[in-house]
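Structure first, sequence second, as always.
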């Protein structure tokens, strides 16, 4: 089992900040629904906590409140580009230091969280807006980064 102790402080920060960053990327992809979408992000963490024991790695990630630091970026585009880079880095770290099951569970958690945020507020009558779907597609692609 892989946990926080298997990573440096910097590596752990990358891994633990990727899920809420995915939520922020989706939230900033489309105006409107910020409160509902933020609540969906938090709810994703609560749901993951209810599944305690299935993955030590995810248990440690979701044990703390999601860190939502949107102030370190000057624009939603800067947030998105930095976030996509963090996703790739997190996948590479987990590929080297965790099991395949843990990596898959991590990716699934990030993608489920992002999808929950996207569907929390109907945009123009659609469950997910085109800009949110584009953000989801980019997050999916970044998480599919092959190991190096």
């Amino acid at each position: 089992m892989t946990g926080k102790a298997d990573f440096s402080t910097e590596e752990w920060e990358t891994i633990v900040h990727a899920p809420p960053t995915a939520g922020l990327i989706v939230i900033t992809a489309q105006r409107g629904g910020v409160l509902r979408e933020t609540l969906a992000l938090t709810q994703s963490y609560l749901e993951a906590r209810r599944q305690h024991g299935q993955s030590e790695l995810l248990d440690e990630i979701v044990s703390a409140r999601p860190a939502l630091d949107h102030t370190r970026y000057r624009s939603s585009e800067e947030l998105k580009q930095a976030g996509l880079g963090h996703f790739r880095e997190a996948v590479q770290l987990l590929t080297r230091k965790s099991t395949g099951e843990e990596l898959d569970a991590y990716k699934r958690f990030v993608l489920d969280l992002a999808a929950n945020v996207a569907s929390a507020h109907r945009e123009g009558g659609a469950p997910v807006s085109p800009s949110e779907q584009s953000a989801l597609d980019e997050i999916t692609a970044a998480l599919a980064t092959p190991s190096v």
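Margin note: The two ends are 22 Å apart (CA to CA).
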